[in-house]
Amino acid sequence: MRVEYDYDTCIGMFQCVAEWDAFERDEDAGKAVLADAEEREDGVFVREVPADAELDAKFAARACPVEAITVYDDDGDQLVP
C-alpha cells in the first residue's frame, strides 16, 4: 500500500496528524508534512505504508477536508478517497 500527499492542496487543518503519526505539523508553512516521503516531479509526496499503519493511513486520507491524501493498494487501485 502507498500513500500520495499533495502538499500544495493542503490547507493546514492537521486532521491527518491526529490520525497517523507519519504526518507532522509544519506550523511555519501552515501545512502538514509527510515524513519519509519522496517528492515526485509533479510535487506530490509518495511513501509506502507499513502493514501496521494501513488503517491509520486510510483514516488520515478520509479525515482530510480537501482530499490532499490518496491511498492506493499494491495493485495501484485507489482505496481512499
Automatic annotation (TrEMBL):
Domain of life: Archaea
Listed InterPro entries: Fe-S_cluster_ET (IPR051269)
Pfam families: Fer4_15
Ranges annotated as spanning the membrane: none
Keyword annotations from UniProtKB, A to Z: Electron transport, Iron, Iron-sulfur, Metal-binding, Transport
GO molecular function: iron-sulfur cluster binding; metal ion binding
Matching PANTHER family: FERREDOXIN
Protein name: Ferredoxin
Source organism of the structure: Halorubellus litoreus
